[in-house]
Specification:
Order of helices and strands: EHEHEHEHEHEHHEHHHEE
Radius of gyration: 25 Å
Strand order of the largest sheet: 7-5-6-4-1-2-3-8-9
Distance between the termini: 42 Å
Number of helices: 10
Strand content: 5-15%
Shape: elongated
Helix content: 40-55%
Number of strands: 9
Length: about 350
């Protein structure tokens, strides 16, 4: 029996591009229909445009597409987690909604899984991002190497395929700050790269701003690494040692030459330096404690407003690759941490 591939796409400001992306996926999966069946989960991260209306139309047109509408903007990684809770497949494929991740490379990623890898990431030789996004990617790569122990020869991207047990392991994480790359790296090291072409964006601009990128990086190294606390400890120890040496220097200087005045400016510089470092350490510890407090209060990863096309998940309905009768829509209560939603409007 052919294996089921679940494709998850987080969507934000993609109303103009989404139908083309879905059509590209359909053509590629039609070429692979002898080996794989497929389903598509589109997660609308509370996009301000009519992205979810486009998703609704696609669900009515195809009976192997499911749409998830989040109640507010939770971010790309939370949207991915919302999609992961809907997947039924043996393999998972994650893509972007802007057309820059080529659908015709899905077969290459799946082939990597067939060859024994647990996760296969797409590697881009030439990225078609602006200078800001490329700089952000380089910083993110350095952070992953240092904080999360990513192998230096491994390239990570938003276009990847994973086995089912990796999805199940990621779903065990129910705290409010998901970071998919961190979840993958803590689950397995059996990861490989496949080189693919990075395309131009079909329309619009990236939704990532400097603030969102900084938030993503900070979330990555505070949620999945204790190294910042260790660095803070080492810096504090270093500052204390330097302060001790400076105190010895001051005493010896005064003993050798009693007429030498003790400098007010040097004293203030030392106080400001040590005080600044202390505030930095306290702030870092406070960030960890704050995240623990939020998680203890069961803050959700995401809140689902509604799900459309969910009948495709019923075993008796089966799955198909082409257009079918619209399955309609139905709102479903998502129980458990990270999957609650408000009452019906």
């Amino acid at each position: 029996m052919s294996k089921l591939v679940s494709i998850v796409i987080p969507c934000y400001r993609s109303a103009e591009m989404l139908e083309g992306v879905v059509a590209d996926i359909g053509r590629e999966m039609d070429n692979l229909k002898d080996k794989y069946r497929w389903e598509l989960i589109l997660v609308n991260d509370c996009s301000p445009d009519n992205t979810f209306e486009v998703i609704r139309r696609l669900c009515e047109k195809h009976n192997n597409i499911c749409g998830v509408n989040l109640a507010r903007n939770f971010g790309q990684h939370a949207a991915l987690m919302a999609g992961f809770h809907q997947v039924k497949g043996d393999y998972l494929v994650c893509m972007d909604d802007d057309g820059q991740t080529p659908a015709d490379a899905i077969g290459d990623l799946l082939q990597g899984l067939e060859e024994g890898s647990d996760v296969v990431y797409a590697r881009y030789e030439h990225k078609h991002h602006n200078a800001f996004r490329n700089f952000g990617s380089r910083v993110n790569d350095l952070m992953l190497k240092f904080m999360l122990g990513k192998p230096s020869d491994l390239y990570v991207s938003s276009f990847f395929a994973a086995r089912r047990f990796i999805v199940d392991e990621m779903l065990r994480y129910q705290n409010a700050y998901p970071y998919v790359i961190g979840l993958v790296l803590r689950a397995t090291r059996n990861i490989k790269n496949v080189t693919v072409e990075h395309r131009d964006r079909k329309a619009g601009e990236s939704g990532y701003t400097l603030g969102k990128l900084l938030g993503l990086w900070f979330n990555g190294f505070t949620a999945f690494s204790e190294k910042p606390l260790r660095i803070a400890t080492m810096i504090g120890t270093g500052c204390a040692f330097l302060g001790f040496l400076y105190g010895l220097y001051t005493i010896i200087k005064k003993l050798v030459n009693p007429l030498v005045p003790i400098g007010f400016s040097s004293l203030m510089s030392a106080i400001m330096f040590i005080g600044g470092m202390l505030m930095l350490m306290v702030g870092l510890v406070g960030e960890y404690i704050g995240r623990m407090y939020i998680c203890m209060n069961n803050a959700p990863q995401y809140v689902v407003r509604e799900i459309v096309g969910e009948e495709m998940h019923k075993p008796e309905d089966g799955l198909c690759n082409g257009p079918g009768q619209g399955p309609g829509e139905k709102e479903q209560e998502q129980n458990g941490p990270g999957r609650t939603r408000p009452g019906n409007n």
